[in-house]
């Protein structure tokens, strides 16, 4: 029986490395399709929770994990990789402090796999990265095992397209871009992903697939930067950017609505474009659009802070000594994901100016471990008394649970970065759009 037949009969064992917002849904999907899946993670706490059938991600209900038993189990014992037929890497690819790619998670995982690699296995990378990571960096490490890619084992790249808490598209409905180091690698990877998605999009090389993922997020980053820049300009002109966007999007062709905010968050859009920027230097090329977009988007928290300072000044108050409540620690509405959240930068900037800063987020009662920020206080309850105790309330995330009328009625001053407050009800004097 060849590998493709084995996959079609769902007899292949699938190992998912990295059980976060990408890896955990993927493991569940394979189990629901009839495969045996093992999730690998270095976090012992996550492993223990999953083996108890408990979810640590808000939009993934624990029942989905329990329904996967006994086909699913989690493990921190990476020696078990030797028993997997297909291994899919879903680990972070952040930037370092110099805004350069940090591939340590991918490369260290690859080294671990190389130590347990055997003939006939499939290794797939899903993490966002620059073109060349799979067939250059990873291939070289895996071949230190003495086995050869495309001959002894299969090597592929298929970029993740996970959008946390997106109820409009299930994973099965989202086309999956798939590539392979050789045509046979592509054939095997296509066979695997065809079991969990309706449509697979094969491309000619792993570099093409890696560039596809970057284009998707660069497209969003550049267009968000455009509306963020327009927000700053139109604010000076006394024009409401939100009204402009609502009017523009009535055009049935040639326009796609993007929305401004306090900055970019999430693991993809603020980070992925700079992977291509970094790689472009190897070709003596400057990615000016990407760098300009990054500059605009990273300046947005400063714009919010300046608008807050101006709003406080009108009330005869100073930012130094002010009590600020940030509404929403997550990077977008209705998720518990704080990766690269602009709220974290806002809190840092306000503290540097002498303000006392707290946050409320119904989905994040206590802040998680963070690489760049240290938060030592949990979420403040959203009560009339608490709202009224703050000098200013800054809406950084427009969670559906937030009632704008309740917030405005009980607050002294509201700085709204997400257009949550649309009906001022005579309270325009204490609501500022930023």
Model description:
The protein has two domains: about 5-205, NAD(P)-binding Rossmann-like Domain (Rossmann fold); about 230-434, Rossmann fold (3-Layer(aba) Sandwich), CATH 3.40.50. It has helices spanning about 5-10, 25-30, 45-50, 60-65, 105-115, 135-140, 185-195, 205-235, 240-250, 270-280, 290-315, 340-350, 385-390, 405-410, and strands at about 15, 35-40, 70-75, 85-90, 120-125, 155, 175-180, 200, 325, 355-360, 390-395, 415, 430-434. The chain starts with a helix and ends with a strand. It contains 14 helices and 13 strands. The protein is about 35% helix and about 10% strand. The protein is α/β, with parallel strands linked by helices. Helix 5 (about 105-115) packs parallel to helix 6 (about 135-140) and helix 11 (about 290-315) packs across helix 12 (about 340-350). It has an eight-stranded mixed sheet with strand order 3-2-1-4-5-6-7-8, sandwiched between helices.
| SSE sequence, one letter per element | HEHEHHEEHEHEEHEHHHHEHEHEHEE
State mean pLDDT (0 to 100 scale).
Answer: 95
Tell me which CATH architecture of the largest domain applies here.
3-Layer(aba) Sandwich
**Strand residue content:** 5-15%
What's the main sheet like? 8 strands, mixed
């Amino acid at each position: 029986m060849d590998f493709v037949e084995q996959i079609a009969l769902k007899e292949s064992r699938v190992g998912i490395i990295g059980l976060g917002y990408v890896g955990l849904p993927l493991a569940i999907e394979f189990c629901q399709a009839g495969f045996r899946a093992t999730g690998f993670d270095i976090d012992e706490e996550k492993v223990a929770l999953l083996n108890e059938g408990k979810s640590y991600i808000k939009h993934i209900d624990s029942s989905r994990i329990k329904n996967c038993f006994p086909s699913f189990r989690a493990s921190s014992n990476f020696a078990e990789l030797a028993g997997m037929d297909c291994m899919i890497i879903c680990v972070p690819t952040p930037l370092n402090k110099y805004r350069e790619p940090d591939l340590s998670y991918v490369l260290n995982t690859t080294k671990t796999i190389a130590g347990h690699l055997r003939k006939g296995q499939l290794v797939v990378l899903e993490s966002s990265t620059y073109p060349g990571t799979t067939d250059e960096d990873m291939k070289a490490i895996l071949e230190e095992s003495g086995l050869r890619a495309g001959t002894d084992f299969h090597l592929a790249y298929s970029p993740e397209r996970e959008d946390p808490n997106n109820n409009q598209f299930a994973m099965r409905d989202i086309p999956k871009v798939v590539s392979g180091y050789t045509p046979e690698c592509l054939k095997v990877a296509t066979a695997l992903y065809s079991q969990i998605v309706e449509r697979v999009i094969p491309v000619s090389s792993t570099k093409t697939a890696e560039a596809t993922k970057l284009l998707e997020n660069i497209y969003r980053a550049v267009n968000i930067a455009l509306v963020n820049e327009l927000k700053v300009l139109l604010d000076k002109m006394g024009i409401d950017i939100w009204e402009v966007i609502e009017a523009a999007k009535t055009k049935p062709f040639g326009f796609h609505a993007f929305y401004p905010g306090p900055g970019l968050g999430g693991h993809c859009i603020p980070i992925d474009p700079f992977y291509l920027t970094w790689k472009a230097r190897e070709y003596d090329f400057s990615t000016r659009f990407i760098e300009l977009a990054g500059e605009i988007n990273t300046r947005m928290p400063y714009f919010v802070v300046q608008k807050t300072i101006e709003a406080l000044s009108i009330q005869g108050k100073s930012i130094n000594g002010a009590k600020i409540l940030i509404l929403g620690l997550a990077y977008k509405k209705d998720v518990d994901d704080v990766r690269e959240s602009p709220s974290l930068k806002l809190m840092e900037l306000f503290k540097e100016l002498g303000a006392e800063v707290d946050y409320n987020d119904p989905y994040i009662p206590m802040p998680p471990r963070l690489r760049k920020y240290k938060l030592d206080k949990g979420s403040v309850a959203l009560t009339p008394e608490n709202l009224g105790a703050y000098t200013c309330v800054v809406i950084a995330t427009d969670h559906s649970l937030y009632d704008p009328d309740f917030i405005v009625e009980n607050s002294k001053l509201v700085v709204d970065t997400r257009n949550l407050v649309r009906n001022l009800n005579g309270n325009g004097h204490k609501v500022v759009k930023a």
